[in-house]
């Protein structure tokens, strides 16, 4: 099966159709030091991801309180050739509370530069191929963000800029200040999070309107499609809700059963069907997979061997919604 080009490949030709999310690396979300066994765990996950053709690895400065990046840095020291084989992406902008400040989102220019430099130190590398702004900051000033990005780019510390969890208006506002295109927007999206798709489709469905966030995403996918911005889907596996062997709630069972039925029909894994549902979308969505189980990672590779037809896609959409399309 040949896959159409991803929007991201205009800027990063080696970006893969699936991305690997590194949030599950680095051990527990605590401040205990990372260990060699955390590096072994990351190595097994990265090798499984490379085996299925993944080149793009997605980090954030906050994952496991910085340990995901540190463990990846240790992996680069174990395998120095790895850095040049992959597309390295990280994010900044979420700050946990400390004694000196409350929890906040911080897209001030000074903080962006400081956070990127800290990520580079943890990763032990000189450059992030892509930097994403992790969440919108109500106090953000696009000119200041543009200046910080320009400085990092000129210094060779960041190749491209993208965003995460931003809607169409936020992307347009930020984009006007930049002299480089935004290359990606990472959204919570998949069979477990239909809001960005429902927003443009189910406008006359009173139940959809009551879903948190549903209306905030109106026009977001279309803005990305119009401007060639790569949509990356986080929570793409819905944490196993539809690909697992048993349903996590009775409400999920019909969609879980349908995923497994389609998997048997196409001779692929259930993970392959869940991801193929995203990849059928004409925006050429790039699912970010967060499992660190090597067998499950390899099962995700089936997504590139199956194309759902329109009827299968809509059956999964409506069943996962749990309420009929309007
Ligand atoms: N931009 C943002 O705001 C944002 C937010 C969250 C995450 N992310 C990124 O997106 C990536 C993926 O997000 P995610 O981790 O939320 O999504 P995910 O890929 O939907 O879920 C991964 C999690 O689900 C578990 N899982 C998957 N299939 C399972 C199954 N069949 N049975 C039991 N457990 C199963 C995995 O456990 P195992 O490891 O045991 O398989 C792992 O803990 C992250 O790694 C991160 O890079 C971005």
From TrEMBL:
Cellular component GO terms, alphabetical? cytosol
> Where would I find the NADP-dependent oxidoreductase domain in this sequence?
17-313
InterPro entries found in the cross-reference section: AKR_Detox_Biosynth, NAD(P)_OxRdtase_dom_sf, NADP_OxRdtase_dom
Which superkingdom, per the lineage? Bacteria
Membrane spanning stretches? none
Q: Which PANTHER family match?
A: NADH-SPECIFIC METHYLGLYOXAL REDUCTASE-RELATED, OXIDOREDUCTASE YDHF
UniProt name for this protein: Aldo/keto reductase
The source organism is Roseateles aquatilis
């Amino acid at each position: 099966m040949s896959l159409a080009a991803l929007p991201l490949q205009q800027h990063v030709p080696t970006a893969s159709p699936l991305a690997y999310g590194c949030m599950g690396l680095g051990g527990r979300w605590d401040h205990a030091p990372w260990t060699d066994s955390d590096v072994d765990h990351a190595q097994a996950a990265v090798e499984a991801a490379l085996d299925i053709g993944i080149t793009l690895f997605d980090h954030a400065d906050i994952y496991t309180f910085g340990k995901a990046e540190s463990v990846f840095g240790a992996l680069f020291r174990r395998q120095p050739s790895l850095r040049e084989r992959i597309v390295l992406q990280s994010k900044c902008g979420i700050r946990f509370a400390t004694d000196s400040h409350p929890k906040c989102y911080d897209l001030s220019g000074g903080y962006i530069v400081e956070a990127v430099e800290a990520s580079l130190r943890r990763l032990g590398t000189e450059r992030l191929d892509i930097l994403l702004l992790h969440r919108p900051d109500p106090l953000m000033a696009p000119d200041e963000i543009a200046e910080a990005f320009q400085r990092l780019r000129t210094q060779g510390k960041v190749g491209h800029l993208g965003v995460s969890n931003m809607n169409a208006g936020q992307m347009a506002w930020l984009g006007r200040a930049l002299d480089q295109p935004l290359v990606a927007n990472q959204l919570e999206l998949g069979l477990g999070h239909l809001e960005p798709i429902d927003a443009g489709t189910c406008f006359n469905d009173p139940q959809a309107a009551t879903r948190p966030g549903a209306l905030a995403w109106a026009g977001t996918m279309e803005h990305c499609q119009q401007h060639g911005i790569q949509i990356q889907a986080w929570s793409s596996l819905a944490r196993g809700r539809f690909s697992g062997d048993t349903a996590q709630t009775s409400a999920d069972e019909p969609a879980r059963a349908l995923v497994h039925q389609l998997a048997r029909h196409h001779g692929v894994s259930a993970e392959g069907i869940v991801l193929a549902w995203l990849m059928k979308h004409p925006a050429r969505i790039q699912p970010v997979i967060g499992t660190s189980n090597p067998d499950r990672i390899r099962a995700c590779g089936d997504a590139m061997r199956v194309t759902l037809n329109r009827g299968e896609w809509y059956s999964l959409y409506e069943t996962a919604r749990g309420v009929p399309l309007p």
